[in-house]
Amino acid sequence: MTNDIELLGRVVASLKLPGFSAQLAAYLKQQLQFDHLLILGCRADKHPIYLYDSITTQRDFLFQRYLTGSYLDDPFYRAAQQQTQAAVLRLQDVVSDVRERREYEHNFIRNTGLQDELCICSPLDKNRWLLLFLGYKDENPARYQAVYTELVRLLPLLHALLNQQWGAQSFSMSAGALNKTGLQQFLAAALSSFGAEVLSKREQEITLLLIQGFDSQEIAELSAISVGTVKNHRKKIYAKLHVVSLSELFQLFLTHLLSS
Predict the structure, then answer these.
(1) Closest CA relative to residue 35, chosen from 138, 136, 150, 146
(2) Closest Cα to residue 53, out of 44, 61, 62, 65?
(3) Helix (H) or strand (E) run with residue 38 in it
């Protein structure tokens, strides 16, 4: 087994590179042995940006529901907007009402198939923050407390790494930049092929940014084109893919992802 220092060295070596998330996941996996890892880039009043995941079951909830709107009901997401410092959040920290907490737990288990969840919130600036969700398929209070304690210990290191990676860098990703192993290779192929038969290369690029949650102004800045041009591309993309909303675009991509 690769030792902790070697894995951490790989994380540091991958800073500012496309493989950072995968290396961070490998390091955390050895430390915490989770079943589920999700990394999201968040911005005030905008959709979260998908950055990485190791989800192998019930992925439809993430792409079809969570990223398209239900994130607004996530108590971790709501609490993170108020955080000014990095923190490890437990459900009991963000939902004080017992009845509300039980309802959330019931819905979370039904939607994700997971029993336990912890969240790392890492603010980048006043308008941007990162969320890392760790989940477990079985309930184990002793392990939950041990993982929480270890995350608190690792938090300064993780916060520093995340800020080095994304503090001054856009959350955007390109299909070609993803780490070409395992699930990331699968996702990269799905992103590259989505709409390929009917969309131009530029339209595919803009579709990828739309799927990630960027609005027209942000896409214009990232693509070095005008907002009007982005809107025209968006109309053509919707027409060619026979969708009328961002939600339908997400759903179409999810169908493509699951059938790839």
Answers:
(1) 136
(2) 62
(3) strand 36-43
- At 8-58, the pLDDT tens digits run 999 999 998 878 988 999 999 999 999 999 999 998 877 788 888 888 778
- Picking from 135, 115, 178, the residue whose alpha carbon sits closest to that of residue 37 is 135
Beta bridge partners of 118: 134
> What contacts 133, CB < 8 A, 6 or more positions away?
36, 37, 38, 39, 40, 76, 117, 118, 119
Please count the residues of the chain: 260
Residue type, 21: S
Name the CA dihedral angle for 44, 49, 53, 56, rounded to a multiple of 10 degrees: 110
Note whether 201 and 192 are within 8 A (CB): no
By CB atoms closer than 10 A (0-12, 13-18, 19+), residue 50 is: buried
The dihedral formed by the CA atoms of 175, 179, 182 and 188, expressed in degrees to the nearest 10? 0
Three-class SS of 149-199? HHHHHHHHHHHHHHHHHHCCCCCCCCHHHCCCCHHHHHHHHHHHHCCCCCC
Query: pTM score, two decimals?
Result: 0.75
Q: What is the mean pLDDT of the chain?
A: 86
Strand arrangement, sheet containing 116-125: 49-53, 36-43, 128-136, 116-125, 87-89
Q: Which helix (H) or strand (E) holds 136?
A: strand 128-136
What is the structure's pLDDT at 176?
A: 39
Q: Coil, helix or strand for 234?
A: helix
Strand (E) or helix (H) holding 231? helix 227-241
